[in-house]
Amino acid sequence: MGIALSLHVLAVVVWVGGLFFAYMVLRPEAASQLEPPARLALWSGVFRRFFPWVFVCIGLILLTGFWMITAFFGGFAVVGTHVHLMLGLGIVMMLIFFHVFFAPFKRLKQAVANADWPEGGRYLAQIRVLVAVNLVLGVVTIAIASAGRFMQ
Predict the structure, then answer these.
(1) Are 94 and 58 in contact, with CB atoms under 8 Å apart?
(2) Which residues contact 81 (CB under 8 A, 6 or more apart)?
(3) Using CA atoms, how far apart are residues 68 and 8, in angstroms rounded to an integer?
(4) What is the pLDDT of residues 113-151, one digit of tens each?
(5) Which of 13, 47, 62, 117 has the fewest Cβ atoms within 10 angstroms?
């Protein structure tokens, strides 16, 4: 249980921490000072390196979460509402990530490869909105996960 919980929390920290870094640190500071070609290439490279980690995190979160629910907490019928909320919000976050990865990020990479800066900017703007949504959902999920059992 200790290993599963540690891996679960570490995966959440990596994913949500990366969202926080991207949205609150890189975007307003470093990236905003660059011209569109450099800015879009930077973002494409950052996402290219970060997104494989998100896939690993999603796998770990699902694997450890379902294992803890079934093996330690007695199944879905027994766990508290906060666990169901955490799972539901996590699934929404995963679906948003899959959309980002397979749609606007794919198009952003293509726009950067084609030096189509206006189009790349449009896709980056879409990604920024979805990163902000996932960041809010991630913070809410963490709050529910850490305090939920005390609020019932």
Answers:
(1) yes
(2) 148, 152
(3) 10
(4) 999 999 999 999 999 999 999 999 999 999 999 988 777
(5) 13
